[in-house]
Write a structure and sequence with these properties.
mainly beta; Leucine-rich repeat, LRR (right-handed beta-alpha superhelix); 6-stranded parallel β-sheet; 5-stranded mixed β-sheet; 2 helices; elongated
């Protein structure tokens, strides 16, 4: 996570000079001519006035961090887009509407879910506060919701069997997380830097917690783990936590001696 935080500012200085917003701060819509086939890396990086993006049919690719940190509220992706770069739509705090042309062979937003899904493997690549995760989705990609604002109470469906690194990191309004029973591992940095997160429920199916999974969640007060056997806890997974750990009846001693879990100031059985 620290690498990402350092990388973004370093990139933003030289690349901001090449962005569409560098010399025009009055963008309301992305004014893209029909002959454009590529939205280049960081082209709309942190465009504060850009609201509506409805890309023309000629566009085939969207570069890395192309709309990172912009103020877009609505996104339309045409049928010919077959490549979307890393962090292309992260930290778009106002984004609530995502539509993908039904003819697109690579990506979809099935059931009007307001997300970008890779069709071939049912993987959710980018989401927003209005996303409804379809039952057909099996995996949340790395950093899929990173920097998402407006997401408050997350109940991860049972059909999700994998959540990528940093998937819900830096979600500034996230207050509670209930993980689905199809999940076996909480990934590295999955919920790191969520300043309002207060409650987490980890089901019996989870056998391991990744490094720094809940790092820098200062308001965390309650972690409920439903497994009698302590999941393997990664490096600084709950670093500096002041939360109370709730564990199944008869398992307090096991948690009190387990790496990562024994650092909790209070462990209570339920």
């Amino acid at each position: 996570m620290n690498a990402y935080k350092l990388l973004y500012p370093l990139l933003s200085v030289p690349m901001a000079l090449l962005s569409a917003c560098a010399y025009n701060e009055d963008y309301a819509t992305a004014d893209i001519t029909t002959d454009v086939i590529e939205i280049s890396d960081r082209y709309y990086y942190r465009c504060d006035s850009l609201t509506v993006v409805d890309l023309p049919q000629g566009v085939r690719s969207i570069g890395d961090q192309a709309f990172f940190g912009s103020s877009i509220t609505s996104l339309g992706i045409p049928s010919q887009v077959t490549y979307i770069g890393d962090n292309a739509f992260n930290f778009c705090a106002r984004l609530t509407t995502i539509r993908i042309d039904e003819r697109n062979p690579v990506f979809d937003s099935r059931n009007n879910c307001n997300a970008i899904i890779r069709t071939a493997n049912d993987e959710l690549l980018y989401g927003c506060s209005a996303t409804v995760i379809p039952e057909s989705v099996r995996r949340i990609d790395d950093y899929a919701f990173c920097g998402c604002e407006g997401l408050t109470d997350l109940v991860l469906p049972d059909h999700i069997d994998a959540v990528g690194d940093g998937a819900f990191s830096e979600c500034s309004d996230l207050t509670s997380v209930t993980l689905g029973r199809g999940l076996s591992h909480v990934s590295t940095l999955a919920f790191a830097d969520c300043p309002k997160l207060t409650m987490v429920t980890i089901p019996e199916s989870v056998s391991s917690i990744g490094d720094a999974a809940f790092l820098h969640c200062p308001e965390l007060v309650s972690v409920r783990v439903e497994s009698a056997v302590p999941p393997r806890c990664g490096y600084i997974a709950f670093f500096g936590t002041h939360a109370t750990l709730h564990v199944p009846l008869g398992s307090r001693e096991a948690y009190a001696s387990a790496s990562g879990w024994r650092d909790f100031p209070m462990i209570i059985e339920f």
